[in-house]
Amino acid sequence: MRVLLWHVHGSYTTSLVQGPHEYLLPTLPARGPWGRGRAETWEWPDRACEISPEEAQDADVDVVILQRPEELDHLAEAWLGGRRPGIDVPAVYLEHNAPQGRVNDMRHPAADRHGITLVHVTHFNALFWDAGSAATRVVEHGIVDPGHRYTGVLERAVVVVNEPVRRARVTGTDLIESLAETSGVPVDIFGMRSEPLGGRDVPQSQLHGEMAQRRVYLHPVRWTSLGLSLLEAMHLGMPVVALATTEVADAVPPEAGVVSNDPAKLADALRRLVRDPEEAVVRGKAGRAAAMARFGLDRFLRDWDDVLQEVSM
After folding, report:
1. Statement: residue 162 has pLDDT above 90
2. Domains of the chain: which residue ranges?
3. Model confidence over 14-30: pLDDT tens digits?
4. Which fold is adopted by the domain 154-294?
5. Strand locations in 29-161, DSSP E?
6. Angle between helical axes of 263-275 and 173-183 (0-180°, round to 10)
7. Which of 169, 174, 208, 228 is most buried, by CB atoms within 10 Å?
8. Which helix (H) or strand (E) holds 266?
9. In whole angstroms, how large is the CA radius of gyration of the chain?
10. What's the whole-model pTM score?
11. Which of 245, 199, 196, 191 is nearest to 222 (CA)?
12. Which residues 6+ apart lie within 8 Å of 77 measured at CB?
């Protein structure tokens, strides 16, 4: 199949383009959010191809994957030369995020849109978004396995989060300092625009190696779908200490670490795992096994193939 999709989420798209299809990525000279093209910091196969607005006008497209309201409302139709998603071209709306706002007001932009299948990345999201009569599916995350790289040689915890200052309470930024102080465990922060908190924007090629040297992965996020960095940490073989919010409590088994909404329990877990490297190794191995079984790339791509085949029939 020839699949048109915008490069919105780098880590997710990296997994998706590992599939057997040809992926057409809208590209503009400025390479901003509406035409980013191929990734510069991830390795993508050649079948992930850039396409200009002129080329897209009459390009053969079997399915378009929408990811933002603007794509649904007008952008995809403009790029496709007037062909309407879900009417003239089979379409899927991939929703990465958990909904915001009051529970009764969590209506999805694709709600009641016939001809467009709404794909959620977690069961939590599917439960909380109001999709109306739109067809919905859940395709859980899949990770390109970075390999078991855990050493835990540094008696520190690590958080990977982008824009922790702007996103503040959403990402649990306010909890990091207090957990570090209460536990006595230093916490390193990696991610885009994390410098105001003393963090570093580590190149993608180095990130997994940096993470794996830390003793524990800390996930203090209050409200997100299911952080890909958390799943990557589990693939690396890292033990996990995490808030029991959104999908986390279901995705992280008890043997892989400690999941709780009690900061005192999280601080105690950080302290214990840093002091007991043997327990950290055992929990990390259990987490990797669980992540490989549930969030492996093969299962993810099979699920996506099923969705693409279904909507294109």
Report:
1. no
2. 2-142+297-312, 154-294
3. 999 999 999 999 999 99
4. Rossmann fold (3.40.50)
5. 48-51, 63-66, 91-95, 116-120, 136-138, 154-160
6. 50
7. 228
8. helix 263-275
9. 20
10. 0.94
11. 245
12. 83, 84, 85
